[in-house]
Amino acid sequence: MTKRLTRVLPLLAAAGMLAACGQVQAAEQTGDPGTDAASSTAAEEAGTITVTDDLDREVTIPVRVDRAVVTLSYNNEFVQAIGAGETVVGIDRGTLERDPYLGFDESEVVGESIGELNYESIVALDPDVAIIPRNGAWQEAADQLEQFEIPVVVVSAWDFDVFDETVELLGEVFGEPEGAAKVQDFYHEIFDTVADRVDGLDPVPVYWETDKPYVTALPGSGFDAIITAAGGTNVFGDVDGGDAQFETTVDPASVVTRSPAVIVHERPPSAAPYPAGEIADLAASIPERPGFAGIAAVTGSQVYVSNGWATSGLSKAIGAAYLASWLHPEAFTGIDPADYLERWAVEFQGISEADYAGADAYVWGNGS
Hints:
This protein has 368 residues and is of the alpha/beta class. The protein folds into two domains: 48-175, Rossmann fold; 181-365, Rossmann fold (3-Layer(aba) Sandwich), CATH 3.40.50.1980. The protein is built from 15 helices and 15 strands. It has helices at residues 3-20, 33-44, 73-82, 93-98, 119-124, 138-145, 163-174, 177-198, 222-229, 252-258, 276-285, 296-299, 308-311, 317-327, 337-348; strands at 48-52, 58-62, 68-70, 88-90, 111-113, 116-117, 129-132, 152-154, 204-209, 215-217, 232-234, 247-249, 262-267, 303-307, 363-365. α6 (138-145) links the parallel β7 and β8. α7 (163-174) runs antiparallel to α8 (177-198), α8 (177-198) runs parallel beside α14 and α14 packs antiparallel against α15. The N and C termini lie far apart (62 Å).
């Protein structure tokens, strides 16, 4: 039996039962071939909806998604946050490694990365939809899965600029508009608080470093955006270009000459905290880099190391709150970003309070 018949037959059976109860009225034949054809098409499309994905593609999917393959850890975190985590039956290895609390195992991995997917494994799971980010193998997946009637919806939860659209799209796909609205409200609660507290304050120069030494964020990146939102200014904000993520490797001497007042080094996202000794060693090594002893951030004890699961979580909203509190501590009396992180972990990610490691396991700084 084909996948289409598997889905359509229960709908036909249900329609037959309702008709027997007098609840379905047969469509009246108008005699107009065009009108009758349109009615027939509408009937065939019953049980489906059309959504517009991250690349403005119109994709027809079942009105009810019970089984989904979702790649990219950020996508899975958003699906969990809106209340649809139980529908996910297949993931990429990055999600397995970064988000162990979601409860997946090796048997549910359908790709070594978002760009290297196993289509045989995906088909075997019989999903209603596959969710793939635009920097993943979505086009190849769409081509390969079309014959099995598995629609591919492009969703890129890493993109800071389209947060609302992304969450709304996931709410449509999974039939969770209320859950999506709740996530949006939390996100805007954080950013509205940050905006209100930093309004009118002088911007503070920031050097934001991603996982490798001297790799920094440029204008166009989400990190650059949260530096500005947090009441800071990117010390490399005058540099254009970079890679696809708007990041580039800079000359160590240029960090010294620009003398940022705050330095943040973000490790890759991992819900399982990094060993405390490893983070302490990393934090201690930054001030010891050649020439760094005289940088304002070092002399002022404003060097921070974070786990990206915290500071890039919720489309970097939590990271913006942390950064703003470091840049303008006097403006954040009574506001503890750790509370936002705990809410994200417990309320939206479903981690029990007993299992939550606590903010200190994810964010470390000699100025905190």
